[in-house]
Amino acid sequence: MKYLALVYYRESRVDAMSEREWHSLNQECIRCVERLSEQGHFVAGQALQPVANATTVRVRDGEVLISDGPFAETKEQLAGFYLLEARDLNQALQLAGRIPPARLGSIELRPVRELPPKDRQGDEK
């Protein structure tokens, strides 16, 4: 089963890090991905740019509304994600606990909801 591990932390805390501390954290993340990959648990993942670079899109009454910034003001900002393969929630929790930025903020773990197959009614045979 797939689980999405959303990485949250306060950007102000990262901004206060020295270049060496920031580099060290990134190297830890790279090693974490390597281990998860070797064990067959890493499906995909990516770090995100700071929330200052976010744009939010909404559609209301057929009109596309675009605004600068994230959807909501929060204490912690979404910093990236790991898509994990795990046999169950307990294993996914153990894997998420190894993600280095968990020390700075939190990891929100969510099971991936598989969409049903495309409805093939009306297709020619």
UniProtKB/TrEMBL annotation:
<comment type="similarity">
    <text>Belongs to the YciI family.</text>
</comment>
<feature type="domain" description="YCII-related">
    <location>
        <begin position="1"/>
        <end position="114"/>
    </location>
</feature>
<dbReference type="InterPro" id="IPR005545">
    <property type="entry name" value="YCII"/>
</dbReference>
<dbReference type="Pfam" id="PF03795">
    <property type="entry name" value="YCII"/>
</dbReference>
<dbReference type="InterPro" id="IPR011008">
    <property type="entry name" value="Dimeric_a/b-barrel"/>
</dbReference>
<protein>
    <submittedName>
        <fullName>Dehydrogenase</fullName>
    </submittedName>
</protein>
